[in-house]
Amino acid sequence: MDQEHRGTWFGFGFCGFGQALGSGLGRQVHSPEPLRTPGGNLDVCSVSASWSYTAFVTRGGRVQLSGAASGAAGGCTDAWASEELLVLLRAGPGDGAELQAWAPGSALRGEPLWSQAVQEAEGGPSRDETQAGPLPLLPCARAYVSPRPPFYRPLAPTLRARRLELGAEHALLLDAAGQVFSWGAGRHGQLGHGTLEAEPEPRLLEALQGLTMAEVAAGGWHSVCLSETGDIYIWGWNESGQLALPTKSLAEDGKTTAGGLDEDGSEVKRVSSGEDGAPAPFIAVQPFPALLDLSLGSEAVKVSCGSRHTAVLTRTGELYTWGWGKYGQLGHKDTTTLDRPCRVEYFVDKQLQVRTVSCGPWNTYVYAVEKEKS
Amino acid sequence: MAGPGALWEALQALLPRTKEELKPELGETAGGSVAMLLQEAAELFHGGRRRECLQACEALLDYSWEKLNTGPWQHVDKDWRRVYAFGCLLKAVCLCEPPGDTASVAAALRACDMGLLMGAAILGDILLKVAAVLQKHLLSGKRPAPSPSREPPSIKKARDDHVPIPDVTTERTVPRLHCPSLQYFKKHFLVPGRPVILEGVANHWPCMKKWSLEYIQEVAGCRTVPVEVGSRYTDEEWSQTLMTVNEFINKYIRNEPKDVGYLAQHQLFDQIPELKQDISIPDYCCLGDGEEEEITINAWFGPQGTVSPLHQDPQQNFLVQVMGRKYIRLYSPQESEALYPHDTHLLHNTSQVDVENPDLEKFPRFAEAPFLSCVLSPGEVLFIPVKHWHYVRALDLSFSVSFWWS
């Protein structure tokens, strides 16, 4: 275990229910602010944010809720927050683990809605790269949790799932060989098979065959994956530019709003132009993966998606965000919606390297450390 | 023009008295957080904290909008549509806080229309009432519409104006009947599923005399409606957008439009009840099993040249022509295979063939499929039997009203 600089968690975007985001004042935070978690400075190691509340898990195994749902509990190795359910993975009495689903309004008091023993992954609770990723995928990789019944959903063992992410109506799975599968509704092209048809069962993304993926992320209606070489593949709905492809704008070009909404609450979108300055052809839906040709400076290593925005982390610790920005979730000090990636300058200015990014539907949480002096 | 204070009072009079009543009737679906936010919005509104209320409304609108876009529209829980409507209501009223300038009131009307388009009825159809008040206020401040010299005769047409009017004399035409009895229609057309043009049935409806571009702009000009942009819905560049009726007319009907825009398949008469006074329900609809309230009435308003690709609908249809003429071709459901429907779920009711310019190499059987055709003129009603394939092209600036019934 290498000595890691103790870093800080930051948050920006929607906090209309008082979720601990920065100062927690007001309903939106437009620029990253250090987290002030309830109960003081907790040693947060992971964050799972739903729309109206956020769950923080500490290194000490404590889960702390903030926002419309409150409460705390110990013995917790992972948490997954959704509006319908809060799912916790807790160390069992023996060497097993227990999966618990709580009503968010329960404040973690009383009994969970349901619980069951689950197989712990081999090697104990500390996860490394090769093991099955966080919830909603279970450590044994044989099943995943869904916020809607049936809550416990088995996965074919042949899938060898490593990561699983859920969108509003689709699911993405990354397997041990770096292949990506998708299933669910496809109306917005989010499945990536080139059509708008639904898929009832996990289906391999043929367009990505031959490439080895390292990360996947699901937004509300879009999907992203990163190859081991740091390329970004993206598909699905582009109505807010969340695919970093040109999107039809409903507002005037070039206008920015600072500190709030327009009088009539309209959002402002900045539309990218083609090379000759004419508007590029708009893309509303991208039904199969597109390789994003972005000069980010270095390879993409982590990705997370909100409902309608995307955040990508590079190897050199820079954070890029794009898509829906109405609640400040892009972190660019305004509420502009963008259809091209922009670096979050806050971390560059403060000489911080971003190490983790985790998006809630309308906000973004980031873990950053001070740059090492060379 | 009535002052902004009068507008505010008129709106207050429409709202429930107490803040406890200021909420949509909801079931269990929306959940605790939404209920919290709804309550907060009502409290902020009653506390006169308009700006914060607007922020709460935006969150309600954005969250319910996401739900409206999850799953097929028919399966969206009505509670989400109610939440959306409620957000639109409070937003609209907040925007009219004195001194409400014209831009704010127009934005408020737009918010009402969004609630009417995507929301569900709440608080006794309050959005319709609020919209009517706002519309009246906006119109009372405007000068009358520009002079009639810009009316249909001088509507500038698109550049490539060779409007091929098909020579229907070489095609088999849809039979015409003058006011057949209910029994005759049922026996000879409804039951066997045969198309027919009914004359003398709708020709005296008020819309036939009253409707013109000018009248439509008067009654509906500032209202927001969905518009389809693009030659046909099977095209890649086709899209849907929202704009006011005035914007639609200025961009897609007057002034040499660059693109085709079509105010198509929109339940305009639910949105603007005043227009409903100008039409009736054809008597023959009573031959169906359904209730009158279940009949879907759609407006189809657009320039010369709009095209609806060959497709079929799951209900019986009376297509009433009000302004302009339409060329319509009809194929029996028995010919479906020769019409090469798309094999996707989304477009399985749409043919792949471009009726007036078919690719006969790709779709050879199409050439042999028998059909009926007609030019439908103002005052006439076309009966399109359920599942009957139909293709429609507007030969002039056109307004049709369709009645889908079962």
Features:
heterodimer; A: 374 residues; mainly beta; four-stranded antiparallel β-sheet; 1 helix; globular; B: 406 residues; alpha+beta; nine-stranded mixed β-sheet; 13 strands; elongated; transcription (chain B); JmjC domain-containing protein 5 (chain B)
Question: What's this entry about, in short?
Answer:
The complex is a heterodimer of chains A (374) and B (406). Chain A has 374 residues and is mainly beta. In chain A, 1% of the residues lie in helices and 41% in strands.
Protein model, in words:
The complex is a heterodimer of chains A (374) and B (406). Chain A has 374 residues and is an all-beta fold. Chain A is built from one helix and 27 strands. A five-stranded mixed β-sheet of chain A has the order 20-25-24-23-22, with no helix packed on it. In chain A, strands 2-1-27-26 form a four-stranded antiparallel β-sheet. In chain A, strands 3-4-5-6 form a four-stranded antiparallel β-sheet, with no helix packed on it. The radius of gyration of chain A is 20 Å and the shape is globular. Mean pLDDT of chain A is 85; it is low at 123-130 and 250-277. Chain B is built from twelve helices and 13 strands. In chain B, strand 1, helix 7 (182-190) and strand 2 (196-199) form a beta-alpha-beta unit. The radius of gyration of chain B is 23 Å and the shape is elongated. The chains are: A mainly beta (374), B alpha+beta (406). The A-B interface holds A 14, 16-17, 27, 51-53, 68, 83-84, 104-105, 168-169, 185, 187, 195-198, 220-221, 248, 250, 260-261, 263-265, 282, 284, 307, 326, 361-362 and B 31-33, 36-37, 54-59, 61-63, 66, 69-72, 91, 95, 103-104, 107-108, 110-111, 239, 241, 344-346.
